[in-house]
Specification:
This protein is of the alpha+beta class. It contains 17 helices and 15 strands. It binds adenosine-5'-diphosphate and magnesium ion (MG). One of its GO terms (biological process) is glutaminyl-tRNAGln biosynthesis via transamidation.
Length: about 500
């Protein structure tokens, strides 16, 4: 297993501040469940459909309609809980969160406040190779998403699209264990990675599949440790919540701005007021949206239309047995099984498809060499062309090229040429090498011939090389050129050395 260290971060020194301050961050991530139908209706969840085309009577809150829970959504939330090593509550319940908004026809959102489906869990957040920080998960509950108000289509009117109304969200709430902007982004990255491994959420942040409310406060050194020991929140500073962040970069910028704002306020004798703020990326600042006094009073109460949700331990165990290998385990296995560095292992396990692609590319070959090949040659080209690695070369193509390198049939330089030709023509590597005569010349006779010719043609260079053996490299280069890069470099080196008497 990997040797992970769980470090407590050092206090941040914020330029311009009179004192040292520490940041404390807790996240509420809304992750849309990857299901075809909504949480309480059979309407489709398809993104980008014609407005108001995926709306069942219950989503539009027609009188007399009753919610029927989507078992698949519950299963995905349980799966997510298990993936985050969390406690699954066999009994949970749904509550109504009441508020009035045009995109919420029911006048309430069905959510889980008092008895969530999933309890405490954890995420190991990767900071740098060998360093991970544990962030505790407080709970995961299921809830309905709201619809969408559209204000920019008409100067005088607003429109409403109810396609998203009633889509199942998992709200994943962390403890305030995140200690800086980079860690916050790393947390969302890791959570997104796990969700995608589990297949429970697509994690498409641009489409709003995954969005985060970021709670930020600041405290003086020592206060966080006092909170940790007692779990008493009064040791922490007052927090502000920045709503609806859907970009890793903006999350970091918003936290950075918010921390500075709070510190400046506190150091000038002011007080942080608990409130909801919005981040404006154009101005790189957060702005107040509503203060606690104006905060909604949601008047939560148990939803009388829904029975408490009771699930069986056997069912949960069945889901647990079907979990895939998750990123931490896969990364550790790649390090032990393939001898790759932890950094390479994290690149290769960034997503499940890439990890599978790498393993298929290894075939029976050398793991470390395959890792270098996939990362440097395939991913390099794929990223540049904005293609999937599979579209650059199938795993079998990588395996075939690397097998030829291992058998000394082609040099690593020619291997790259073969890959380029394959990308252009789609031809199999073996065919490319045979048809274009790219096989490495290991026949020492042929190499000797080439070396002899170059020595004979360049007597002056020979004299120089005898004085300065480093110049032998020039001869090696000439031989490689003369053989179109096909000569076995090891053999060329040896023969050049011997012939020059070095
Ligand atoms: P709500 O926002 O609905 O009132 P909570 O009070 O449970 O819910 O807190 C929401 C989030 O705020 C959680 O992620 C929690 O970890 C985080 N949080 C609570 N107190 C602080 C604090 N002092 N600083 C930063 N984050 C905090
Ligand atoms: Mg909140």
């Amino acid at each position: 297993m990997l040797d992970l260290t769980y470090e407590t971060p050092k206090p941040r020194v914020i330029a311009g501040a009179k004192h040292d301050w520490e940041l404390v961050i807790g996240m509420e991530v809304h992750a849309q469940v990857a299901s075809k139908a909504k949480l309480f209706s059979g309407a489709s969840t398809e993104f980008g459909a014609e407005p108001n085309s995926n709306v069942a009577f219950i989503d539009a809150a027609m009188p007399g309609m009753l919610p029927v829970i989507n078992e698949f959504c519950v299963e995905q939330a349980v799966r997510t809980g298990l993936g985050l090593k969390a406690r699954i509550n066999l009994k949970s319940a749904f509550d109504r969160k009441n508020y009035f908004y045009p995109d919420l026809p029911q006048g309430y959102q069905i959510s889980q406040l008092y008895e969530p489906l999933v309890g405490e869990g954890e995420i190991l957040v990767d900071m740098e190779p060998g360093v991970a920080r544990r962030v505790r998960i407080e709970r995961i509950h299921m809830e309905q998403d709201a619809g969408k108000s559209i204000h920019d289509m008409d100067p005088a009117m607003s429109f409403v699209d109810l396609n998203r109304t009633g889509v199942c969200l998992m709200e994943i709430v962390s403890r305030p264990d995140i200690r800086g902007p980079e860690e916050a982004a790393a947390y969302v990255t890791k959570l997104r990675q796990i969700l995608r491994y589990l297949g429970t959420c697509d994690g498409n942040m641009q489409n709003g599949n995954l969005r985060a409310d970021v709670n930020v406060s600041v405290c003086r050194p020592g206060d966080y440790e006092r909170y940790q020991e007692s779990q008493d929140f009064s040791h922490l500073g007052t927090r502000c919540e920045i709503k609806n962040m859907n970009s890793m970069r903006f999350i970091q910028q918003a936290i950075d701005y918010e921390a500075r704002r709070q510190i400046a306020l506190l150091e000038s004798g002011g007080e942080v007021v608990q409130e909801t703020r919005l981040y404006d990326p154009d101005r790189s600042e957060t702005r107040s949206m509503r203060s606690k006094e104006e905060a909604h009073d949601y008047r939560y109460f148990p939803d009388p239309d829904l029975l408490p949700l009771e699930i069986e331990q056997d069912w949960v165990d069945g889901i647990a047995a079907s979990l895939p290998e998750l990123p931490d385990a896969k990364k550790a296995r790649f390090v032990t099984d393939y001898g790759v560095t932890e950094y390479d292992a994290s690149v290769l396990t960034a997503d499940r498809d890439l990890a599978a692609y790498f393993e298929a590319s290894v075939g029976g070959g050398d793991g470390k060499k395959t890792a270098n090949w996939v990362i440097n040659e395939v991913l390099g080209r794929a990223n540049k062309a904005e293609l999937a690695p599979q579209d650059i070369a199938a795993p079998e193509v990588n395996a075939a090229i690397l097998a030829m390198v291992a058998a000394d049939e082609i040099s690593t330089k020619i291997a790259k040429d073969v890959l380029e030709i394959h990308i252009e023509t789609g031809d199999a590597p073996g065919k490319i090498v045979t048809e274009r005569g790219l096989k490495q010349v290991t026949d020492t006779g042929a190499i000797e011939e080439a070396v002899d010719k170059i020595i004979a043609d360049n007597p002056a260079q020979v004299e120089k090389a005898k004085q300065n053996p480093k110049l032998a490299g020039w001869f090696v280069g000439q031989v490689m050129k003369a053989t179109g890069g096909k000569a076995n470099p090891k053999a060329v080196n040896q023969i050049v050395g011997a012939k020059l008497g070095l």
